[in-house]
Write a structure and sequence with these properties.
Elements: H1 3-32, H2 38-54, H3 66-91, H4 99-116, H5 124-150, H6 154-177, H7 209-226, H8 228-238, H9 240-245, H10 250-276, H11 288-298, H12 306-327, H13 333-346, H14 352-379
Amino acid sequence: MSKKRSLRFSIVRGALAIGIALLVAFLLILLSSSGNTFGDKIASAAKAIETMLVRPFFRANGQFSTKNFTDILASMIPIVFTGLATCVMFSANQFNLGSEGGIMLGAFVAALIAIYAPLPAGVLPVVAILGGALATAVMMLIPAILKARLGVSEMVNSLMLNYIVQYMVLFLMHGYLADRSKGQMQTYTFQSEASIPPLVDNGSKLSWGFVIAIIMTILVWYFMYRTRYGYSIRMIGINQDFSKYSGINVFAIIIISQVIGGFLAGMGGGIEQLGRYNAYDWMALPGYGWTGVTVAILAGNNPAYVPLAAFFMAYLDKGCSLMSTYSAVPAQLINVIQAVIFLFFAADQFLAKYRQRLVVKSAEEELKAQMSKAKKEGSD
């Protein structure tokens, strides 16, 4: 199938999956809506959906809100990194779900460095972010080596690893690292030199981490589509046996893909901590890794589309929060929308006939072009 038709199929499939997810959300809201008549329930559900889809960009008076927009951009930052991490791993057909624990570990390690490392401004945040990224890269060696050496499922190992990270952090916080003088479970305050400065001065949490996220998107895209290692990762994802017989070191690439994914997830955790917080207080898995899976699926495992997918998910998350405020609908509806999107993208038979028609049409056009070329050469 041609690139143009492949892109068209991806767009149609994505739009339908999102549309079905929103329809499911509407029906769930309709069932839980208050109202004396069915018409009242429909009006209430429609108002809730309108709040979710329209209100994130606007104030209560209907004017465009720059702060709301920059808040959405700020919310994108961690899921851009987990989306990129998942793209790299999924491209190698490695269904590693460890970005959730990875972003938590990266945030925790970066926070410890930000608290205790005696480093100057400019150096401290860089060391903290890289420290968190490297810690998560090392963590990802566990499912990577088990998969490459023993054939153990990376999905199961990475899922379990998420909870090992969570309870390890809880153990260290409760036993050694919490600041007991504060009213909640959190670490001591970060050194002022560790913070990532804001990108705009409008009261939002948008930091220079957003710029770093865009730069990393470009670098990951270049790595995946313009380097030998990126090509090897994608070839293993398409056909591992063929890649092996063509000379690609499958063992090394399986490990490299998951270690890079861990590095990106940990980097996102460090940037999120130093850009939005002044002390570490994550006692549960933050959810960014799960959203990153949805982002990678929406992006078709192409890093270039990750920021767009991340913006969409951050926008929906903001909309669901507003909907819960104004319409008494739980903000957790975003999880239902994510699950439905994931379901339809994961279903191989979803729009399979439409895809088959596109493949056949591309083949017919290619054959016609070749016959026309051969006829022209014969007449010459």
